[in-house]
Amino acid sequence: MIDVRDLVYEYPTTRALKGVSLRVAPQTITALVGPNGAGKTTLLRCLAALEDPYSGTVAVGGHDTRSEPRVIHALLGYLPDFYGLYDALSVRRVLSYAARSRGISAALAPSTVEKAAGRVGLLDRMDRKAGELSRGLRQRLAIAQAIVHEPKVLLLDEPAAGLDPQARRDLSSLLVALKDNGMTLVVSSHILAELEDYCSEMIIIEDGLIVGGQAVKVKDVERPRYMLEIATARSDLREFLAARGGVDVIEADDYHALFTHTKNAAARAKLVRDLLGAGFEVFQLRRIQQGP
Questions:
Q1: CB count, 10 Å around CB of 281?
Q2: Rounded CA gap, 92 and 89, in Å?
Q3: Is the pLDDT at 93 greater than 50, yes or no?
Q4: From CA 174, how far away is CA 143, in angstroms rounded?
Q5: For residue 5, how many C-alpha atoms fall within 13 Å in the half-sphere facing its CB?
Q6: Least trusted range by pLDDT, from 29-33, 184-188, 286-290
């Protein structure tokens, strides 16, 4: 999905990127890790076609950022470290403005806004002003702005900065859900302990270079299996689970379901809440240990 080759970027007094090369596969979450000043934000801005590199190439979805920047902008969403919201506007109006500015027609904007808000869990706050939201909910609204046009690639610069532990767990769950729904994500982060919750690869950047010259596998990305058992038969169990983001049903009957899902605890907790909210009498949810 993303192909960077020999990327060099220079500011007037320093060379921020020194021949960076990397590839990001589709429908993955890649973390950019490194100290302040290492070049993470510069790299993200080059990926977003917001900076013109001194030399080298960047391609997103097969499109070159230099020759087709507008195509790149349509393909991706970008959440900078310091993002802006119109605090006096409601969540609905903030997202409506974002949708229309992205070229979504007036006829399609309402449904598009509802979908984006639903993906980040803000449907119950559509009429609240952005300035009244907590830090974590403002972050969700900012992400909704970035995905309202349903991009194929999402770039996030330090999205967990300033969030409390629960908000960070919620963010991890959201990123996994976006990936499972088809997006490719690149996330800049300092919080190494939480990367295993959602990242498949980690790129360590130091002094404008990738340490080791290539990405590091964070974990085996094979998703675990879970067995769900409910106390009262429901013929719609398979259908309900199949409609959840990130759930792949292997087999199911009216009482049981075997499916794959993320290792992320917050995502599993949300799934259970969704089941209970829909009236399913959850008896147990357990992970199935697979072979070595």
A1: 12
A2: 8
A3: yes
A4: 10
A5: 7
A6: 286-290
Q: Which long-range contacts (CB under 8 A, 24 or more apart) does 278-282 make?
A: 278/240, 279/234, 280/230, 280/234, 280/237, 280/240, 281/230, 281/231, 281/232, 282/228, 282/229, 282/230, 282/231
Instruction: Locate the DSSP E strands across 2-112.
Output: 2-11, 14-24, 29-33, 55-60, 63-64, 76-79
Element (H, E) at 135: helix 135-147
- Residue 230 to residues 124, 148, 225, 257, 272: CA-CA distances in angstroms? 28, 35, 17, 9, 11
User: How many angstroms separate the CA atoms of 4 and 283, rounded?
Assistant: 48
List, for residues 180-221, the tens digit of each pLDDT value.
Answer: 888 999 999 766 666 666 787 888 898 999 887 767 766 544
> Which of 23, 22, 24, 12 has the alpha carbon at shortest distance from 54?
12
Q: How many CB atoms lie within 10 A of CB 97?
A: 16
Enter the tokens of residue 108: 């399609």
d(CA 226, CA 181) in angstroms, rounded, equals: 19
Predicted TM-score (pTM) above 0.85: no
Tens digit of each residue's pLDDT (9 = 90 or more) over 110-131: 999 999 999 888 999 999 999 9
Phi, psi of 146 (to 5 degrees): -75, -20
Of residues 49 and 289, more confidently modeled: 49
Two tokens, residue 220: 């085996």
Identify whether the C-beta of residue 159 lies closer than 8 Å to the C-beta of residue 32: no
CA distance 148 to 114: 9
Task: DSSP letter for 164, please.
Answer: -
